[in-house]
Design a protein that fits this description.
The complex is a heterodimer of chains A (120) and B (798). Chain A is α/β, with parallel strands linked by helices and 120 residues long. Chain A is built from four helices and five strands; from the N terminus they run ββαβαβαβα. Chain B folds into five domains: 1-125 and 319-367, no CATH class; 130-228, Beta-Lactamase (2-Layer Sandwich), CATH 3.30.450; 236-317, Beta-Lactamase; 398-550, GAF domain (Beta-Lactamase), CATH 3.30.450.40; 571-794, PPM-type phosphatase domain (Phosphatase 2c, domain 1), CATH 3.60.40. In chain B, a hairpin with a 2-residue loop joins strand 18 and strand 19 (607-615). In chain B, helix 17 (533-570) packs parallel to helix 18 (619-639). The chains are: A alpha/beta (120), B alpha+beta (798).
């Protein structure tokens, strides 16, 4: 399945929707979309992987690099994951320990917003 | 009359052909607006109405409409002529009838004159000598016998007494009611009386006076049979009726219809006119006896003051007229039909190439660049078709050029496939500049010789190795400048081999990368032709991109080579034996070398370390990271007791590498053969399978930990599991489970588990081979990602 990446901004939170497969060949597009997220203040990012069917190690690298960058800029990132395969991938790699992982977008909004007042 | 008819018809024929020419003329020059508006003003604007209703008229319909409009005055003229000619024919018929009637009238006069002469002769004869009455009667009988028209003859004395008569009956002897006799006695020379039917014969009284020096001696009074009239009456056509009326209008004789009432024509105006001495035609007389319309004529019989009427049923009289008329109508309609057919054919002739052009335009719109329409016409439409084809061909050439350049740009991005793509690319550029073949040479880095690459198309010059400056390509490579040779003689001097191979013109451009000439491309033509500057520039652009792609590919190949060397140096032998343990390891690198590795190393005291890892990324960075990870792992493993501790230390060392965005998944376990335990920790790697000797299928060895080089504070828990003799451990990377088939489906852990279950009694060597084979069959082509597999089985102590 072809990768579709869409970006939208809602209440200062950037939501990146990722649908399809992210692999060695399509990961650059996800990387590009995430690189464009550069607000004035601390970045608040939600990557919605609810419609993502496959992630390979390149994709994980893009996500961990983004996590590193967002945290360095005192922002927060949360992932929305519902697909069992993706849930399992995050469990195996242990990345569920470093990424806030949510079942719904609403929950993810709660996580990144909760981060904001604490910082300001 | 006949020349008028023929003259008229030839004139109308000329008109017809002229208007046909006119209509064609106006169709072929449709921009002739005044002519068209005049035509539409002269006739009902049918096409305009059709437009108003939204009906679409094609070219064919419009031409038909224009020709039809042009034919309208013609048709009106035809109708007028047709009407006039029909009237003319009708008048001719009426005149003929009048002539016939005159003939009848003359007949009657002659008949009567003859009767009077006969009477006078008879009278003179009987009065010349003193004939006895018997003699007179005998003479009269003889006269009657000779001329049966005399029904009776009587000799009447001036005082009114009948002297002699034949026959001796009332009709001869009774003379009291005889108007003709009375007239003669009053002084007339002769007289004719009113109808005097005798025994069914249409008789009439004729009296002639016999005089001597003006003194009336006697009167010969006879009844004559009008049915004995001459041949004109009897020769009348079967449907035609001849009627004689006397001066009062009463019917004296009706040849065909004796039962007609005597006063049937009394008040008919033409008859009245005839009785006044003027001939007249009878137009549309309704005959009450036959209920038919009849035509005819009434002419006077001047001698008697009578009239002759001729009547003929209209249908019979005008039959020939209608026949001629319908024939002419047929001609008019045939000409009109011919005009329409002409319009249809002409319209088709004009619209077919236009429709073909429309189809062509759509075809090009759909992307069938180079679509051609047939243009075998000598007129403007043919010119349009030729222009269309030229446009299409140009478009095809431009698209071909663009595609050739685009394709080589794409190929430059996908450096791996350059060698596969290059022949197709050369083919594309050769057809884009319309050559017959092309050759690519790469320069040997040490000698500078040009070696043919085998990426050419067409046979000429593909196999030769050229020294610097030798031949066209060698010269181009040596000077670094393009050269196009269009003249066969010049080509013979520059590169004698090419004309020998049938090449008439050639163009060669250098391949330049990083300021160095790395080869040359040459395109040749087997026909004498000139390579345009535009084409040379196109070939140069192509060459620049090919050179870039080749340079990229070479750099990439070198990198791959180095990465492959690192990887191979790192890998342990595929088969390792330890007392009480059989181990098989397999590694199959993807085309782009990745960072998978496995390690098997003894730790002393009957312990063996087993590790499998997947470093993210490809090429040299991945290979070097995996080398570092592997050496550090072995070093820490010898040092530390717990796998968790080993991974924590390894993570701490590798975290700085995450600066470049890299990480690694790694599973590490220590198998203690004497204690029968396997203690392991997992840094984000796929859990290995353990297939116990007594179990039906493998189970994952679950212990979780985060990927290496992500979290500097990561902690790795360990898990300890019992390993009995015969138990099988299988470690693998995601290159195995995520290998995809043609449909994009992954090989998957479930399939791997099933395969392992079916191979549980095989040796680790066999299991490793079978698993690798199954995955290779699944993907069909080479692996997209590195594949690593370790299979280990504990053996029962011997």
């Amino acid at each position: 399945m072809e990768l579709q990446v869409g970006t939208r901004t809602q209440d200062a939170v950037t939501v990146v929707d990722v649908a399809g497969e992210v692999d060695l060949y399509t990961a650059p597009r996800l990387e590009e979309a995430l690189a464009r997220v550069s607000p004035a203040g601390p970045p608040l990012v939600i990557v919605n992987l609810a419609r993502t069917t496959y992630l390979d190690s390149t994709a994980l690298r893009v996500l961990t690099a983004t996590l590193k960058r967002v945290r360095e800029q005192k922002g927060e990132i949360a992932l929305v994951i519902t697909q069992p395969k993706i849930v399992k991938l995050f469990a195996i790699t242990g990345l569920d320990q470093v990424f806030p992982i949510c079942g719904t977008e609403g929950e993810a909004f709660g996580r990144v917003r909760a981060h904001l007042p604490r910082r300001s | 009359m006949s020349w008028w008819f023929s003259g008229l018809s030839s004139e109308s024929a000329v008109n017809l052909s002229e208007s046909a020419v006119n209509s064609q003329g106006s169709v072929q020059a449709p921009a002739d607006v005044p002519a068209r508006s005049a035509a539409s003003a002269a006739a009902p604007p049918a096409p305009a109405q059709a437009h108003a209703k939204g009906v679409r008229l094609g070219i064919r319909g419009k031409i038909a409409a224009v020709i039809l409009l042009c034919m309208v005055p013609l048709l009106i003229l035809g109708a007028v002529l047709y009407y006039e000619r029909t009237q003319e024919r009708r008048n001719l018929v009426l005149r003929t009838q009048q002539d016939t009637a005159r003939g009848l009238a003359a007949d009657i006069e002659m008949f009567m004159t003859n009767a009077v002469h006969a009477e006078r002769a008879a009278g003179a004869a009987v009065l010349s000598q003193p004939y006895p009455v018997d003699g007179i009667v005998q003479l009269f009988a003889a006269i009657r016998a000779q001329d049966p028209a005399f029904l009776s003859i009587a000799l009447v004395l001036p005082e009114g007494r009948v002297e002699a008569a034949d026959p001796q009956d009332d009709r001869s002897t009774r003379v009291d009611a005889r108007p003709a006799l009375a007239s003669v006695r009053r002084g007339e020379e002769w007289a004719v009386g009113p109808p005097f039917p005798v025994e069914g014969h249409p008789g009439v009284e004729v009296a002639t006076g016999i005089r001597d020096h003006g003194r009336l001696l006697a009167v010969v009074d006879s009844i004559v049979d009008l049915s004995r009239l001459g041949t004109v009456f009897t020769a009348l056509a079967p449907g035609t009726d001849g009627i004689i009326v006397d001066r009062t209008g009463r019917i004296v004789l009706d040849l065909r219809r004796p039962d007609r009432p005597p006063d049937a024509f009394w008040q008919l105006p033409p008859v009245q006119r005839a009785l006044t001495g003027q001939a007249a035609t009878i137009d549309a007389y309704h005959d009450p006896l036959t209920e038919t319309r009849q035509l005819g004529a009434a002419v006077p019989v001047p001698l008697l003051g009578w009239a002759v009427i001729l009547l003929e049923p209209e249908s019979v009289a005008l039959e020939s007229v209608w026949q001629a008329a319908s024939q002419e109508l047929g001609w008019i309609l045939a000409v009109a039909g011919l005009g329409l057919i002409l319009a249809w054919v002409l319209g088709g002739e004009l619209s077919a190439p236009i429709l073909a052009l429309a189809r062509g335009a759509r075809a090009i719109g759909r992307g069938e660049i180079g679509y051609r329409v047939s243009a075998n016409r000598s007129d403007e439409l043919g010119e349009l078709g030729t222009a269309f084809n030229e446009m299409s061909a140009q478009l095809h050439r431009y698209v071909g050029e663009m595609n050739a350049l685009q394709a080589v740009s794409d190929a430059a991005l996908s450096t791996v496939r350059l060698r596969e793509l290059l022949p197709t690319l050369v083919q594309q550029i050769v057809s884009a500049i319309q050559g017959d073949g092309g050759t690519v040479w790469f320069a040997d880095e040490t000698t500078g010789d040009l070696a043919p690459t085998g990426f050419g198309v067409g046979s000429a010059g593909t196999t030769r190795r050229l020294r610097p400056g030798q031949g066209l390509a060698g010269r181009v490579a040596a000077r670094g400048r393009s050269l196009a040779v269009s003249h066969p003689e010049a080509l013979r001097i520059l590169d004698p081999d090419l004309p020998a191979q049938g090449v008439h013109a050639a163009v060669s451009v250098p391949l330049r990368a990083g300021g160095k000439v790395i080869g040359a491309i040459q395109v040749f033509s087997r026909q004498t032709r000139e390579f345009q500057p535009r084409e040379v520039r196109l070939l140069e652009t192509f060459a620049d991109r090919v050179a870039l792609a080749v340079d990229n590919a070479r750099a990439y190949e070198r990198q791959q080579e180095i990465a492959g060397i690192i990887q191979e140096v790192l890998l342990p032998a595929p088969s390792v034996r330890f007392p009480g343990l059989t181990i098989a390891g397999r590694y199959r690198p993807s085309r782009e070398v990745g960072g998978d590795f496995y390690a098997i190393f003894p730790l002393g005291e009957g312990r063996v370390g087993l590790a499998i890892a997947d470093v993210s990324g490809k090429g040299i960075p991945a290979a070097t990271l995996s080398a570092r990870a592997r050496y550090l792992l072995e070093a820490f493993a010898l040092d530390a007791r717990s796998p968790g501790e080993v991974l924590e230390r390894l993570n701490t060392m590798l975290v700085p590498d995450a600066e470049v965005g890299m990480f690694a998944s790694l599973f590490y376990g220590v198998l203690d053969l004497t204690a029968g335990t396997f203690v392991s920790a997992n840094a984000g790697h796929l859990p290995p399978f353990i297939l116990r000797a007594g179990a039906s299928g493998p189970a994952p060895l679950e212990v979780r930990g985060i990927l290496l080089a992500v979290d500097p504070d990561a902690r790795y828990p360990v898990v300890e599991t019992r390993v009995e003799a015969g138990d099988l451990l299988v470690l693998f990377t995601d290159g195995i489970t995520e290998a995809r088939n043609g449909a994009g489906e992954q090989f998957g852990e479930r399939q791997l588990a099933g395969l392992l279950a079916s191979l549980r009694h095989a040796s680790p060597e066999d299991i490793a081979d079978r698993v690798m084979d199954a995955v290779a069959r699944w993907t069909g082509t080479g692996p997209a990602d590195d594949q690593a597999l370790v299979v280990a089985r504990a053996q029962s102590p011997e």
